[in-house]
Amino acid sequence: MKHIQKGKITLIIIIGIACLALTTIMFMQFKIVNQGDINELEVMREEELRTELANWKANYEEAEMQYKQKMQTLEEYNQKEISDTETAELVKKELAQVNLLLGKTDVVGSGITITLKESQSAEAPITSDNLNMIVNSLKEAGAEAISINEERIINMSDIVLVSNSIIRVNQQRILVPYIIKAIGNQAYLESALLGNGGEADKLMKLGHDVNIEKDNRVKILKYNKDLTAKYIE
Amino acid sequence: MVLIAIIIGCLLGALIGMNAPTISYTYSSYLAIAIIAALDSVFGGIASVINKKFDMKIFISGFFGNAILAILLTILGEKLNVDIYLAAIVVFVWRMFMNLGTIRRYYVEKWTDKVKQIHEQKLDTKQNTTKDIQEKEV
Question: Which of these, A5, A110, A116, A207, has the minimum number of CB atoms within 10 Å of its CB?
Answer without folding.
Answer: A5
